[in-house]
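Assemble and predict.
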Amino acid sequence: MANSYDLIIIGGGPAGLSAAIYGGRAKLKTLVINKGTIGGLADTTREIVNYPGYIQVSGPDLMKDFKKHAEHFNVEFLKEEVVSVDFSQEEKIIRTKKGKELSAKAVILACGSEPRILNIPGEKTLRGSGVAYCATCDAEFFEGEDVVVVGSGDQAIEEGMYITKFARKVTVIVLHDEGVLDCNKVSAERAFNNEKMEFIWNSTIEAVLGEENVEGVKIKNLKTGGSSELTCQGVFFFVGMIPSTHFLKDSGLETDTRGYIPVNEGMETNLEGIYAVGDNRVKYLRQVVSAAGDGATAAVVAERYIEELNYFNSNIIQSDKKILLLFFNVLVNESLEFSTLLEGLISENGDEYKIFKVDMATKKSLAGKYQIEKVPAVVVLDKGEEVKRLDCSMDKEQLKSQLS
Amino acid sequence: MSLQQLNSTGFEEIIYDNCEPCLVIFSKKECHVCKEVVPMLEELKPQYDGKFGFYYVDVEEDKELFQRFSLKGVPQILFFNNGEYQGKLAGKVEEESVEEKIAEVLGV
Ligand SMILES: Cc1cc2nc3c(=O)[nH]c(=O)nc-3n(C[C@H](O)[C@H](O)[C@H](O)COP(=O)(O)OP(=O)(O)OC[C@H]3O[C@@H](n4cnc5c(N)ncnc54)[C@H](O)[C@@H]3O)c2cc1C
């Protein structure tokens, strides 16, 4: 089928592209679906100085290299937005906004994050008329004007300083006490020494003012509770990011309260065959280098998973012998004892059956496929079709009679 | 780039002399949101062939044009009909909003 892949990666930022390089190299039929420009957030970064091997490189240039590398290993690309998924079956289904349906054996989620919207009055209506979220894009429109920056993290302070190249004055609204910024020390020092940068402490923004264009902001002092107005022509919001995982809401995928996806060391989510990498997962450091590392790990783990799946499909489904799918859980003693009994019985009694043991803890999709909830459980397959289920009796004769 | 790029002279002709119903996206190269919106317009364009014009202005090449409309950011899609400004859509707009706005401008 043209729309079916071994591996589909949702998101074409550094995490997704790295996974694609490893997937392509492993000769998996790999597709990257990305809605915007390839490179994600890194593509919007003017300058990257901490990616190993590049002393200084622009985000777009680095991402072009990532993409070229993936293409070199025959990775395919699709420029579309994924709007819904069905991860409940072994074959994972992905639907795009334009109505395309694709399927894959394994899916890597690398959707990154997007700017948080405060949803205060004026923020939405004045967007593009003075309200902005990207300094590279919009700073030059504020030549000689007064600009307010909301936030004090790395992005807020670094972007704020970039805006001073154009604006007359940049006023930063900071939640914390005087002198305390959330950004790194080097940037903080530079900002304090920048003559065009001013700070309003212990404050937050309540509303953006203006009819046609931004005319000012309403500022609330968190200490005194008082409000004041400040005249300005532009407001840049840098109030943090939220993971772009909303389209996964009803997929059964676990996320934390903020929408980040928790994974284990192998980037595995709570769903089998689904992995999460880069900025959209729960993690300590959100950078290009760590996104790349995640991507590599997930692709290798996914490759193993696909191999096992293929093994199952060719050896179990196409086996000459009848297969006994034996579901067990190491935590359930009864299932282990039953397993020993059944294995003994089969090795004594000939050739008709082959046992395939399924660990409930790791093979969740198989358990789901056969709707197994309790262990031990045995499904008898003939040429891949279920023919019956065994009553998992510990009585050897009783068990034997079911197999004849 | 399948959208025809306008400079100030072209802009005058199309908008004010020909009075064509059309949209003009004000965009620039180094802007990631523009890179999402422009291809969306390119895909939409053929559906409106002969009925509604789709044009492109690079704000870095034609500063004067965005100053004239006192724009504060890119991308922005401005709508015109009969030589009159009919409103704009700013930022990351969806295909549906553009279609709605075109219908409104054409009065259908
Ligand atoms: C201003 C700024 C400066 C930075 N500077 C540095 C730096 O100097 N060094 C550094 O290492 N890091 C830096 N970072 C951080 C770095 O950019 C990120 O950590 C990195 O880009 C994360 O990669 P990612 O692949 O996880 O996600 P992203 O880069 O966010 O990519 C995710 C991609 O997925 C796409 N997507 C999302 N949802 C969908 C969907 N439903 N369907 C299809 N596609 C979808 C998005 O469009 C995007 O292209 C900076 C970030 C910012 C904002």
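The longest strand of chain A covers residues 101-109.
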